[in-house]
Amino acid sequence: MMEYRNLIGGRLVPSADGRTLDSVNPATGEVWARVPASGRADAEAAVAAARAALPAWSAMPALGRAHFLRQVAAVFAEHAEELATIETRDNGRILRDTLKRDLPGMRFLWELAAGQVLDAVRGDTVILGPDSLGLTRREPYGVALAVIPWNSPISTFSAKAAFALAAGNTVIVKPAEQASASVLRLGELLADVLPPGVLNLVSGMGEDVGEALVRHRGVNKISLTGSTQTGVAITQAAGIKPLTFELGGKSPNIVFPDADLDAATQGVTVNSIYTGNAGQVCVAGSRILIHRSIWEEMLERISAAAAGLVLGDPLDLATTMGPIVSAGQYERVASYLEIAEKEGARLVFGGRTGAEVVPGLPGGYWVAPTLYTVTDNTLRICQEEIFGPVAVALPFESDEEALALANDSDYGLAAGVWTRDLARAHRFVRDLECGTVWVNTFRQMPPGLPFGGVKDSGYGHDAVLEYTREKAAIINL
């Protein structure tokens, strides 16, 4: 049984009252670790530590901060296998993703943030007249709170903390109660790398430590990756604090008859909704829009591709799809299978849950890769984020109909377009109501490009300048 602690003011400490939460391995249903169940007292201590460290960190020359960020990147390189294994055990994200994709990418992200520190201190000069000069300068907000989800803790921790620290803020990270272990272990590794109080990690329930941090007057900026419902709750609790939200999605994946159908099949099936994290990603291509002329062919192709998925122990590098993260999320996803049946959706494949999906791991939270077909985009399974390996396919007959279906959603996070027609690709990039459009690819999120949404999918994105505010000065010469 592993025991993890908070990182507050450079010290590894339990929760103030000693309470803990169990971490459950979703592949087996067994408790494997305990993390602090922090509360208001822990929130107060974290904010106090972050505020105490702020003057020295924000006043440090930018290149000095870059030196520390590169040291963090070195920790990712040295401990990649350990961190990847902990995250896989904690949330079920398959090891071939955490080890081969996430950890190398996050090392690069911290190095990228180190290279962008000068952007956070660079301003503009405006000649207002012969005797008047205007200047702008960028300043950190102060204490930045990062609220991160359970589906990819290390990646979202890095996307927020690296750029916030680069900009001169001190940081408090509140990981999701379902999967905190990898981030808390990272805190142990970073305790002696960063100055005390510059980075603080506190785990616990959202309604306890999370709400206390969001409401705290000593927190100056909040960035959330999570559900739209959590975004609404934070908006109501945060007051006028500046916010960055990356929220839910119901992303369309649009396949045209001129597409490379082999690539499109891989893109809408393996790379989009099923593999990696069993559809538990905000950008999952959960709505597959297929041109009527290739409808039957694509359904056959998708079924064949899904049949080749390997469900099993996420720590096995041969596994291509893991379990649902928790009992609660498992029950939520399973409920949508019942909703689909009641709504009259046609089951193409899947629809199975529990021990029959992976008999060798009967205690795990398993949902088989599932596909339904419908013709009505207003159904709940088309409009609501399921956050599991459940996709719905809809036919279309024209570009105009495809665009209307794609945009007929309260969400606007991402979309995929599969076509060889360059003009069509550019039109859809222009007209799709979302933050990211992938053309002939899907779920590529390289550091250095903005990532965020529109509509109920949020606003803003994690980048150096998002963690600074501009100040103007007018000087009479």
Automatic annotation (TrEMBL):
<dbReference type="Pfam" id="PF00171">
    <property type="entry name" value="Aldedh"/>
</dbReference>
<comment type="similarity">
    <text>Belongs to the aldehyde dehydrogenase family.</text>
</comment>
<dbReference type="GO" id="GO:0004029">
    <property type="term" value="F:aldehyde dehydrogenase (NAD+) activity"/>
</dbReference>
<protein>
    <submittedName>
        <fullName>Aldehyde dehydrogenase (NAD+)</fullName>
        <ecNumber>1.2.1.3</ecNumber>
    </submittedName>
</protein>
<feature type="active site">
    <location>
        <position position="246"/>
    </location>
</feature>
<dbReference type="InterPro" id="IPR016163">
    <property type="entry name" value="Ald_DH_C"/>
</dbReference>
<dbReference type="InterPro" id="IPR015590">
    <property type="entry name" value="Aldehyde_DH_dom"/>
</dbReference>
<keyword id="KW-0560">Oxidoreductase</keyword>
<dbReference type="InterPro" id="IPR016161">
    <property type="entry name" value="Ald_DH/histidinol_DH"/>
</dbReference>
<dbReference type="InterPro" id="IPR029510">
    <property type="entry name" value="Ald_DH_CS_GLU"/>
</dbReference>
<feature type="domain" description="Aldehyde dehydrogenase">
    <location>
        <begin position="15"/>
        <end position="467"/>
    </location>
</feature>
<dbReference type="InterPro" id="IPR016162">
    <property type="entry name" value="Ald_DH_N"/>
</dbReference>
